[in-house]
User: Which sequence fits this backbone?
């Protein structure tokens, strides 16, 4: 949520940022400013009436002590009248404040100055590339055929048990999944992250804190108790510090977590959603940091390098994109996407997003620190996929396929126990 001071102090900056994010209702900014002015005026009036009540109450006691009962009774009547007025003004302040919050949460985060203008993924900027593209034979197979060939994943069984988009991993497929999760977590732990194993359902307040609500409720599964299945471990783990003042010397706070993720937006047909390209339930390891505002972009670059090193260790060809304003998430100020080349499908697949949300999420969750002057400030929050497994598995199977089987990257062999899947 954008701080209300930003609207008062720099309206033009807000409008410019919303334009870059292709926000469709910039008139909302003027409405918010007018509503904030009305709320502040009501608060001034409320404070003035409260001061009058306090002053009159003291005078009543003094008048009674002097025996001036008639004057005291007049003041009592005035205090009673002002108390009614104070109650009305207090209700007005609360009502205007609630209306203001309801409007502000409809606005996305403002993009960082380095975010390119644009509306579609084609307008994202390629920052750098790495890795080597494998030279596969003409008989190369897509990952869904390799999974069937080696009995790794059963999509039909998942459809039978639950529905489309819920794959069942079997045998070596399940072990490969577990090996990747353990390797990713250990890689993060070695970099100083603390591991969490969070709940897989969250309440509405938690989903609101990270910006899933009210923006993405249509993409989330909800049960009859009002709990939401998490779309990423970012949601519960960032909320660990909700309503908390973090000692400044403890920043940055580094957290990592594995979780299954649940998303309703998966498609239903075509090569773009076939196999593991897009599913409703998938596994992901996440990294989250709470950073000092002065250092959050330095932290962001460090997280990007961390994920890049992970992809390099797997031996996959990758590219890093800086997302344009129109392709960024609602909550992000700057996002880098990682894509891995799928050699059998001959296209790029997104496997990670690393984002700085600045104080947008922290303002909702009231995650703060005290600066050297003793003033309470909002932290900056960041997160990244490290990594999302489905498309990593797809690319590993496709890129390392041979006539004898699928080679297992050296870093995974201690976890998987073999150097080939056959």
Assistant:
């Amino acid at each position: 949520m954008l701080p209300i001071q930003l609207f008062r102090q720099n309206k033009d900056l807000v409008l410019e940022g919303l334009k870059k994010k292709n926000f469709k209702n910039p008139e909302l900014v003027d409405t918010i400013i007018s509503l904030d002015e009305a709320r502040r005026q009501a608060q001034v009036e409320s404070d003035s009436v409260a001061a009058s009540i306090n002053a009159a109450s003291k005078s009543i006691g003094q008048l009674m002590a002097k025996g001036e009962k008639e004057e005291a009774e007049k003041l009592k009547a005035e205090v009673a009248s002002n108390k009614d007025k104070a109650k009305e003004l207090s209700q007005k302040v609360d009502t205007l404040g609630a209306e203001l919050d309801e409007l502000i949460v409809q606005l996305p985060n403002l993009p960082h100055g380095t975010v390119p203008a644009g509306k579609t993924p084609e307008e994202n900027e390629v920052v750098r590339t790495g890795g080597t593209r494998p030279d596969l034979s003409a008989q190369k197979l897509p990952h869904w055929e390799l999974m069937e060939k080696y009995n790794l994943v059963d999509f039909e069984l998942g459809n039978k048990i639950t529905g489309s988009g819920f794959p069942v991993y079997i045998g070596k497929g399940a072990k490969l999944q577990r090996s990747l999760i353990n390797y990713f977590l250990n890689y993060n732990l070695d970099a100083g992250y603390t591991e969490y194993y969070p709940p897989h359902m969250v309440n509405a307040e938690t989903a609101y804190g990270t910006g899933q609500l009210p923006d993405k409720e249509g993409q989330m599964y909800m049960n009859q108790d009002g709990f939401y299945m998490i779309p990423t471990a970012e949601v519960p783990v960032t909320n660990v510090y909700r309503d908390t003042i973090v000692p400044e010397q403890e920043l940055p706070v580094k957290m990592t977590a594995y979780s299954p993720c649940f998303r309703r937006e998966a498609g239903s047909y075509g090569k773009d959603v076939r196999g593991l390209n897009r599913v409703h339930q998938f596994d992901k390891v996440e990294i989250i940091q709470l950073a000092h505002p002065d250092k959050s972009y330095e932290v962001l670059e460090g997280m990007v390098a961390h994920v890049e090193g992970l992809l390099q260790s797997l031996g996959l060809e990758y590219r890093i994109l800086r997302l344009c304003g129109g392709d960024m998430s609602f909550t992000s100020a700057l996002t880098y996407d990682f894509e891995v080349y799928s050699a059998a499908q001959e296209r790029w697949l997104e496997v990670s997003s690393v984002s700085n949300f600045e104080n947008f999420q922290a303002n909702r969750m009231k995650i703060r620190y005290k600066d050297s002057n003793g003033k309470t400030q909002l932290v900056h929050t960041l997160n990244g996929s490290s990594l999302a497994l489905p498309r990593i598995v797809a690319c590993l199977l496709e890129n390392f396929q041979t006539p004898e089987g699928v080679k297992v990257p050296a870093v995974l062999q201690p976890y998987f126990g073999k150097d080939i899947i056959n």
